[in-house]
Design brief:
The chain is α/β, with parallel strands linked by helices and 287 residues long. 28% of the residues lie in helices and 30% in strands. The chain binds S-adenosylmethionine.
């Protein structure tokens, strides 16, 4: 099976035979046809799936909308195909609309976006490949300052490369430092946000990961680093490789913070497995 694309035109080949064609222009499926003798064998699904995939229609992180004309009322196969891929009739046409999934990390980012002012001091206590550090740089803006920490040189290099490539090297930098020592890069009471995304470095040796002992020391240091009104955000993980110890210890630590000084949120994905990532927040109350 092969699909050749020429601009907005897609042609489906089975070996050398052309068995279907489709047109996708500005996310509108303008045509989709399978040669009659090849119908009812899944080739329409295959072609439509590929059209959507190539245009980002299955990207969980991105919003997308696709449209198509309504099929004839008696074309049950076309209606079934449309339904299989999430198209519904709306306003005289078929529409397929997807919004980005919420992940633990996107939830954290959204929370920080609404609680952290530009121009502040932000710490990424587990910079890894630098996605979160870059996000914090975008949040901090040109007047802000971001420091990323990691114990793995490969993570520090990857983060600094990402920041340079994105034009943020004057806002943020990553340093090789255990996050338990984060007060060495932020004086007490000065940080607007400290973000932890615990666990291991994606793409590296999974045996190098944060641990309960070190993480609790780092969380304590993070609270000291925060200014009043500042936010501590942490995504906790558990699972086969890292076990459950760090997640439970950190969770107990969050729950024990005194209400008079901190507002604490634990945002559970309530209908997932118990190994679901767990975003937690502590906002230091203004005195
Ligand atoms: C899940 S990754 C972080 C992902 C990262 N924030 C990103 O956006 O790519 C966890 C990172 O924490 C780092 N880490 C583990 N223990 C640490 C410690 N004690 N101090 C600082 N970083 C640590 C790991 O090396 C790993 O790179």
């Amino acid at each position: 099976m092969n699909i050749l694309q020429n601009g907005t035109q897609f042609t489906l080949y089975k070996e050398k035979d052309c068995i279907g064609r489709a047109e996708l222009s500005q996310n509108r499926v303008a045509a989709l046809e399978i040669v009659p003798r090849w119908r009812r064998r899944g080739y329409g699904s295959y072609l439509l799936k590929e059209l959507l995939r190539r245009s980002g229609g299955f990207d969980r992180a991105v919003e997308s909308t696709f449209t198509a004309s309504l099929p004839a009322a008696d074309n049950a196969a076309a209606w079934a195909l449309a339904a299989r891929f999430g198209f519904t009739a709306q306003g005289g046409q078929l529409v397929r609309r997807r919004v980005p999934d919420i992940s633990a990390v996107t939830l954290c980012h959204e929370f920080l976006r609404t609680h952290c002012p530009a121009g502040g001091l932000y710490l990424d206590a587990t910079c890894g490949n630098g996605h979160d550090t870059l996000f914090l740089c975008q949040l901090a803006g040109s007047e802000g300052r971001v420091v990323g920490l990691d114990i793995q040189p490969a993570a520090v290099e990857a983060t600094n490369r990402r920041l340079t490539d994105a034009g943020y090297s004057s806002v943020g930098r990553a340093v090789l430092l255990d996050h338990a020592r984060l007060l060495e890069v932020a004086a007490p009471g000065t940080a607007d946000c400290v973000l932890f995304n615990f666990g291991w470095l994606p793409g590296a040796d999974h045996s190098v990961h944060s641990t309960a002992d070190g993480s609790l020391k780092a969380l304590e240091a993070a609270l000291q680093a925060l200014r009043p009104g500042g936010v501590l955000a942490a995504v906790l993980y558990s699972g086969r490789v890292i076990g459950d110890g760090e997640k439970q210890a950190a969770l107990a630590w969050f729950r024990a913070l005194p209400l008079t000084r901190y507002t604490v949120l634990v945002c559970e994905f309530a209908n997932w497995d118990k190994t679901a990532p767990l975003p937690c927040f502590a906002i230091k109350r203004p005195i």
